[in-house]
Each structure stands twice: as C-alpha cells, then as structure tokens.
From TrEMBL:
<dbReference type="GO" id="GO:0009316">
    <property type="term" value="C:3-isopropylmalate dehydratase complex"/>
</dbReference>
<dbReference type="GO" id="GO:0009098">
    <property type="term" value="P:L-leucine biosynthetic process"/>
</dbReference>
<dbReference type="InterPro" id="IPR000573">
    <property type="entry name" value="AconitaseA/IPMdHydase_ssu_swvl"/>
</dbReference>
<dbReference type="GO" id="GO:0003861">
    <property type="term" value="F:3-isopropylmalate dehydratase activity"/>
</dbReference>
<dbReference type="InterPro" id="IPR033940">
    <property type="entry name" value="IPMI_Swivel"/>
</dbReference>
<keyword id="KW-0456">Lyase</keyword>
<comment type="similarity">
    <text>Belongs to the LeuD family. LeuD type 1 subfamily.</text>
</comment>
<dbReference type="InterPro" id="IPR050075">
    <property type="entry name" value="LeuD"/>
</dbReference>
<comment type="function">
    <text>Catalyzes the isomerization between 2-isopropylmalate and 3-isopropylmalate, via the formation of 2-isopropylmaleate.</text>
</comment>
<dbReference type="InterPro" id="IPR015928">
    <property type="entry name" value="Aconitase/3IPM_dehydase_swvl"/>
</dbReference>
<protein>
    <recommendedName>
        <fullName>3-isopropylmalate dehydratase small subunit</fullName>
        <ecNumber>4.2.1.33</ecNumber>
    </recommendedName>
</protein>
<comment type="subunit">
    <text>Heterodimer of LeuC and LeuD.</text>
</comment>
<keyword id="KW-0432">Leucine biosynthesis</keyword>
<feature type="domain" description="Aconitase A/isopropylmalate dehydratase small subunit swivel">
    <location>
        <begin position="3"/>
        <end position="125"/>
    </location>
</feature>
<dbReference type="Pfam" id="PF00694">
    <property type="entry name" value="Aconitase_C"/>
</dbReference>
<dbReference type="InterPro" id="IPR004431">
    <property type="entry name" value="3-IsopropMal_deHydase_ssu"/>
</dbReference>
<comment type="pathway">
    <text>Amino-acid biosynthesis; L-leucine biosynthesis; L-leucine from 3-methyl-2-oxobutanoate: step 2/4.</text>
</comment>
C-alpha cells in the first residue's frame, strides 16, 4: 500500500523530452535526475549539464513548484502521458524525484513498460475517473492510497479500480527488474530443464556444463 499526495499535471500528450530533456541524457546512471524533471516547465532560466539547479529560478506557476506539493509522490496526468521516444531516463527522473505512481487515461507503450521496470506504478483509469481526481485535487491538496495488489486507488470515500499484469505487480511489489522477475521462477525453470534433459539426454553431450 502506498499513500501519497497528488500533483495534478493537467496536460495531454506529455512526451519524454518534456519529462526529461535530452541535454541531460549523457549518463546511464539511474539516479541524480530528479532536479531536471520537467526542466523546461519547472525553471524560468535554461539549464545544462554544468548548471547548479539549486540556484536556478523556479517558475511559480508550474504545479510541481507549489510548496504544498513539494513532497508529492503521485503524478496525475492527461491522455498519452510518456509518448515520444523510448527514453528510460524519463522514468528514472520521475523515480529520483520521488514519484511512485503516475495516473492517466493512457500512456506511451514503452514508457508504461519502463515505469514498472523502475518502481513507478503506471495506473490507467477511465477519462472521467481521471477528471474526477483532477477536480478533487484542484479543490485542495489531495491524498490517495494505492494498492497495486488489489488494483485500487482510494481518494477519501471514493475508490477506483485499475488493472496491472501479474508481472507488473511482481516488479512493483518486489522492486526488481526483468532479470529478478525471471529468477522468481527459478524452481519452475529448474524443473523444466530437468524434464527436458530427461526427454533429450543427448543435449547434455552437445552442451556440457562449463
């Protein structure tokens, strides 16, 4: 169960370059990108790899800079969030900032896959349900509770259901990657290999263990 405050980003078709501008994507490290999340919208002055982001001027009109939302961990967005390139840095920046879930009516396909791989729950709700959450958030600071095992998001007395695949739930609840998800089935893999070798013993001669 995750409980967190919602940041309402009421924009459609937010692409991965808006989430994480390309000038910062020169590293394969998964951390350190939180300060440049939504960089072009978040700051009044441009930034680059040499910038001290603590000294840049935040745009007071951008929702992420609202003092009451500074520690928010749930992002609420419009249709087609994370469209554009397959830039995994976009999800790394969200995670590094502190987000643990993104709620939207739809996502870019690769972005949605990258979310689960990096510990950010990609939650799809119907358009009218997302609009209801926007209304609640705009009426005041909104806290929600998200249960990825049950597939529920609760906002006060209101409850919304969402779907995740079994693999997405495994990735999110265990905070592991594809390799870890595969190793979770090591007993089944071992049983399959033993059964296959019993049926095809000649494979042991062709592919001896090294």
């Amino acid at each position: 169960m995750h409980r967190g405050t919602v940041v309402p980003l009421d924009r459609r078709n937010v692409d991965t370059d808006a989430i994480f501008p390309k000038q910062y994507g020169r590293s394969t490290a998964k951390s350190g990108y939180g300060p440049v999340l939504f960089d072009n919208w978040r700051y009044l002055d441009p930034g680059d790899l040499d910038s001290d982001h603590a000294l840049r001027r935040p745009d007071p009109g951008f929702v992420l800079n609202a003092p009451a939302l500074r520690d928010a961990t749930v992002l609420l967005a419009g249709d087609n969030f994370g469209c554009g390139s397959s830039r995994e840095h976009a999800v790394w920046a969200l995670r590094d900032y502190g987000f643990r879930a993104v709620v939207a009516p739809s996502f870019g396909d690769i972005f949605r896959q990258n979310c689960a791989l990096n510990g950010v729950a990609p939650i799809v709700l119907a358009g009218h349900e997302v609009r209801r959450l926007f209304d609640l958030a705009q009426a005041g600071v909104l806290s929600v509770a998200i249960d990825v095992n049950e597939g529920t998001l609760s906002a006060g007395p209101e409850r919304f259901r969402f779907e995740l695949t079994p693999r997405q739930r495994l990735l999110l609840t265990q905070d592991i990657d594809w390799i870890g998800a595969t190793l979770a089935h090591r007993q089944r893999i071992g049983a399959f290999e033993a059964e296959r070798l019993a049926r095809q013993p000649w494979l042991a001669r062709m592919f001896p263990e090294t």
